[in-house]
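(Fold this chain)
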Amino acid sequence: MRTKVTRWVAAIVGIGLTSVAFGGGWGSTVTITGYYVYSSSTAYINTSNNQNLDNCSSSHYLALDPTQANFKELWATVMTAQATGQTVTLSYAGCSAGGLYPLINAVALPKVW
């Protein structure tokens, strides 16, 4: 029984270390300085400190995929934070199509949780 538990714990720790090794995750607190949305493609934002945790080709823009289930909620949070000057924390999740820009999959207002 102990061997199974030890293997299970080792597997969970290994998975955790693997995700850290590939970057991604929550970045530092930033202010959204601009945003750009196109009718037929990805939406983009700029912040006071664009980060590139996954080593994408460029960090000039940060991308939000409009096919994400909660895209409208993410975009509403982006617009509200930019309009009010509220700082946010962004979750990075790989790169946009073609590996060009960092992909954002969550937007949090700091100190919410």
